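FORM 12-B: Structure-to-Sequence Request
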């Protein structure tokens, strides 16, 4: 299956010497020359500020998508996205995906307006995306707009942001449909331990230095969520104790 996937790897060709400025100085990208994409589903994790969304947005621009979200043909403007990193990325294809989409939760409202301006409501079951709940509109877009009938590359930046637990499980079923096609690749930046559980996915961590592959149970979202759910009272007591000690020191 991997040989049928559109994308083989991303190569990092940064200026030398590397500027000591954002985004070139992100620790996750230090000493990184190549990042392979060998499975149908790849998940990017990391704390806020680690660089995973910056990387994905720049990746989307190099792949030909609107960096605010949409397909190759999406022509609209939303909040400014800094994609300087795109200058240093090169995508290496097994065969270039002619179909694709970049979903960016942060600019979804602007994208939904753009869709209705050009398409009306027909592609979404004659129901405006703005007349559905936030999570329902996400899933409606995924179901009606994305398919796996041709080689495709789908990029998602924190799609779980408006999805309930059941919504995330519904999204996982869609991911499986795309992955099972054998020629669709899905890359997701996420904090969700539910999405991270997708079987056979590659997980890249952007935390604590250069990007590294980790297993599901090694991933920080899984470990923190498991620790919390096993003993929420003890977890919160420790968290609040740290806050109390910090107040005393100040």
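FORM 12-B RESPONSE
SEQUENCE OUT:
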């Amino acid at each position: 299956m991997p040989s049928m996937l559109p994308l083989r790897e991303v190569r990092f060709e940064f200026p030398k010497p590397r500027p000591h400025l954002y985004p070139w100085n992100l620790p996750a990208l230090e000493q990184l020359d190549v990042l392979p994409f060998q499975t149908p589903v790849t998940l990017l994790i990391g704390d806020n500020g680690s660089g995973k969304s910056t990387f994905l947005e720049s990746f989307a621009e190099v792949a030909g998508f609107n960096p605010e979200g949409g397909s190759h043909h999406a022509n609209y403007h939303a909040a400014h996205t800094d994609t300087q990193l795109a200058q240093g990325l090169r995508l290496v294809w097994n065969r270039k995906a002619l179909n694709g989409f970049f979903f960016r939760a942060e600019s979804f409202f602007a994208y939904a307006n753009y869709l209705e301006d050009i398409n009306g409501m027909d592609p979404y079951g004659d129901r405006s995306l703005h007349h559905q709940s936030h999570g329902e509109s996400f899933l409606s877009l995924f179901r009606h707009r994305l398919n796996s009938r041709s080689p495709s590359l789908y990029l998602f930046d924190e799609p779980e942001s408006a999805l309930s637990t059941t919504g995330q499980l519904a999204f996982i079923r869609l991911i499986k449909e795309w992955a099972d096609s054998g020629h669709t690749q899905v890359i997701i930046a996420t904090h969700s331990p539910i999405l991270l559980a997708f079987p056979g996915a590659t997980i890249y961590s952007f935390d604590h230095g250069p990007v590294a592959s980790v297993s599901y149970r090694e991933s920080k979202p899984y470990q923190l969520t498991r620790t919390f759910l096993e003993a929420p009272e003890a977890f919160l007591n420790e968290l609040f104790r740290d806050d109390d000690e910090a107040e005393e020191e100040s």
